Amino acid sequence: VERVFRWGKQVLFQCKTRCAAEEHTQRFLAVHLRMTGRLLIGAHDTSPKHLRARLVLDEGAVLFVDTRRFGTLEVYENLEQASPAGVDPTTADFTIERLTALLKRGRSEQPLKPWLLRQDRLVGLGNIYASEICFIARLDPRRAASGLNADEIRRLHGATCEVLSAAIDACGTTFSDFQDAHGVTGSYQQFLSVYGRNGLPCRSCDRSIDKIIQAQRSTFFCSHCQR
Ligand SMILES: [Zn+2]
């Protein structure tokens, strides 16, 4: 294993094969955790509950544990095969200009919040953070994505960077399952403004947070603060 890094929503293990006769000496093992998957570092013989795969290292092992079995492991021969089509909002490629171009392209009528979940535009955003980003940007999640003006796009860009960096600093959001490789749970759930807070007072205006369904996923927002 030469390098381990995040690639969109996947964790990639960049590996070099030991067989010199092989055409491709490099492989990428892509792990997608999905809902309940986690990677843990343990001893060779550790067998936690719901263990699905064990990657044996020279010392110890990486354990893939997944209660609900939605997680996946795939092997790619090059990085291009593993590449998501969209822009990673945590990289320098994510500029206001790039976001503007993405918003103006494609289906104009798609509402903003489902638009944020499309991995061929922005990579890595999940359902929790999409609702949070719309709230911080003060944008109604039902608005047509392509209808945002320059100031609104600037707010959306800023909110995306702000929410993701704060969530990464807090080691993610843990409701029940997420743990990092050392078994540490996330703590961003205590900072959530709207997600899961339907019926509770908005942290900004005290009015009740609404919950709606968009593209089969729950969306939480404040109809007073988000226009
Ligand atoms: Zn409000």
Brief synopsis:
The protein has 5 helices and 9 strands; from the N terminus they run βββββββαααααββ. The chain is globular and about 60 Å long. The chain has helices at about 80, 95-105, 110-115, 125-135, 150-170, and strands at about 5, 10-15, 25-30, 35-40, 50-55, 60-65, 70-75, 210-215, 215-220.
- Write the H/E string, N to C: EEEEEEEHHHHHEE
What characteristic shape results from the CA principal axes?
globular
Distinct ligands: zinc ion
Structural class: alpha+beta
The mean pLDDT is 90
Which range best describes the helical content: under 10%, 10-25%, 25-40%, 40-55%, 55-70% or over 70%? 10-25%
Question: How would you sum up this structure, described in words?
Answer:
This protein is of the alpha+beta class and 227 residues long. The chain is 22% helix and 23% strand. It contains five helices and nine strands; from the N terminus they run βββββββαααααββ. It has helices spanning 79-82, 96-104, 112-117, 127-136, 150-169, and strands at residues 3-7, 10-16, 26-32, 37-42, 51-56, 61-66, 72-76, 210-214, 217-221. The strands form three sheets. The chain has a four-stranded antiparallel beta sheet with strand order 1-2-3-7. It has a three-stranded antiparallel beta sheet with strand order 4-6-5, with no helix packed on it. β8 (210-214) and β9 form a beta hairpin. The N and C termini lie far apart (48 Å). The site of zinc ion has 7 residues, from loops.
How would the blueprint of this fold be written?
Elements: E1 3-7, E2 10-16, E3 26-32, E4 37-42, E5 51-56, E6 61-66, E7 72-76, H1 79-82, H2 96-104, H3 112-117, H4 127-136, H5 150-169, E8 210-214, E9 217-221
Antiparallel strand pairs: 1-2, 2-3, 3-7, 4-6, 5-6, 8-9
Helix pairs in contact: 4-5
The site of zinc ion has 7 residues, from loops.
